[in-house]
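Journal club prep — side note

Before the paper discussion, L.F. wants everyone to see what a predicted structure for a comparable chain looks like in token form. Sequence:
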Amino acid sequence: MSKPDGSSAAGNTALRELLKSEKVTYETLAGLVRTVAAETGNALRTNRSAVAHWVAGSQPEEATSGYIAEALSRRLGRPISPSDIGLAPAIVREATAWPEDTLAALTELGRLDLDMKRRRALSTAAYSAAALAVPDPGWWAQRADGAANQPTASRRRVGHRDLEAVRDMVRLFSRIDQRHGGGHARSAVVQYLTSDVAAYLSGSFADERVRSGMLSAASELAYVSGWMAFDNAEHSVAQKYFTVAVSLAAEAQDPPMAGHVLRAMAHQAVDLGQPRQALHLAVASMDGSRYASASPRERALLGVVHARALAAGGQKRAAASALIQAEDDLAAAGPNDDEPGRVFFFGEASLAHETACTLRDSGDLNGAHREFNRSVRTRTASAFTRTHAVTLGYLGSVQARQGAIEEACSTWSKALDAMDGIRSARARRTALDMRRALSPVRARGIPVVSELDRRASTYLIESA
């Protein structure tokens, strides 16, 4: 029997008993839920009273049920589903397992992503720490064997020209993301991936090279969609595309492609404050042939994200060693290397950016200042506008932490110039960081501070 407020007369026994047995206070759970919700851009004001209502049997909104389950999963170190704690299951399936039927998972994900009525449930779902466990060796072998022996589902004949067309589209979308941010054209990526590319994957291939190449190209396109979602703070969406991309790479028997995606997942975990999972993913990205058979440039990319994960976990000495190895790997890259197009963006400027983030997280602000400056100086801003803007934002934050407010304001002003037309949650976050850093000096009436704060506020309004 339900009360007028929708709660159960008996209350939520499962949630009450779990909180009691694990000694999780209502205040603690409320804080954890706010943290998980914030990752999706949802600024909940959950407090102790809200938790008390849930324990009494009140059912929260679907998205909030997912946040509660994810918050408890992280706290307890084991997967907790909404149904485990007496809450209604989510419409969007949780990302707690790697795909067993990759094409079906891709098609279903794309269908949800393009459905305006259901897309909000997908984009506001919780990022799942439980889904970050790397599959065991048996899973990889099963994916490769299953793909090689999979019967064709259509009579469509897929040839070398089809493969080249998909690769051209991957290059196009990758460059759009770099110039304009993840908020631009992602629906076009999803539409192409789940219609044209999915149709190719279900056809018959001219030869083995076309088959494996098409799977790798599909993996890269799924990765691009995931990266664009990550850049736009749609973290659960990004996670789902990343897992599909890894599965496609496994089916293609393309270890470097799988490593590339695992590296992106590690990067995302670092950004979301999950250092243990980030390191696990970063180590997996460099395991065996994922690193050994990669080009020098891609090895450097894997290595510098590994360094970031080490720094995030407090392993400063190991992070420093990883940075040296990444520098050596990039130095070994040559203009005539046979390297995949997906690493087109990674050069001296990108290495300097990631190195600066590693040094900043290790507490070396002087080193971070030097490397962010090097990144700004060496990057072609017109081609990599989004990252250039973010780098300038990070540099300004380091300068502010060093007490150089006027210098920081000058850098942040350049960042805002670069952000014009950029649709990226990471760019928005740098604008928010500007305003927070300027808050203590805003009331002093310093003209440069007032003008910058006004510009940052305007950008946040216009880019919302």
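L.F.'s comment for the group: The CA atoms of residues 300 and 329 lie 5 Å apart. Keep this in mind when we get to the figures.
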